[in-house]
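Fold this sequence, please.
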Amino acid sequence: MSFKGSLQNPTIRFLLSILGLYLLWYILYKTIIQPMNHVDMFVINITISISKWILELFNYQVFTGTERVIGVDGTGGLWIGDNCNGITLFALFSWFIVAYKGKIKHKIPYILFGIITIELLNVFRIVGLAILDTISRAWTEFNHTYTFTILIYGYIFLLWMIWVNRYSQKE
């Protein structure tokens, strides 16, 4: 099978689209978005604000640092880095939906729904980590590295499966 012939295969086209979109995202993020820092800080500040509100709703005394820090009094707090703000997850989810078949009128609201719910899940992750930090820093580190990573990527995979099995079929 020739290269041109392999482009007729929908799976190959999808994989090449994802690869191309990822490379475009990576270049844009590393050269423009991340150095400017505005988008990252906007998402981090929203995440911290909502997380602080939820923690205070449950009567935790919360502190926030000058930038990127949130914690419950008596702990060292959490520093939210660019890798943990969810922007890359928003892009990963979005590019999958963009590259997969389906009508644009379904893609746009589904992408917005996905980004909002991924952000909310990230907020609950921060809240959970802040509470765990009051018990044990080791538990915080373990759950940050494993539990919440599996949950968030599992959720994104679930969103993809819903898209594939329900919305992409409405073409």
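The radius of gyration is 19 Å. Helices lie at 3-6, 10-36, 38-57, 87-99, 104-133, 137-167.
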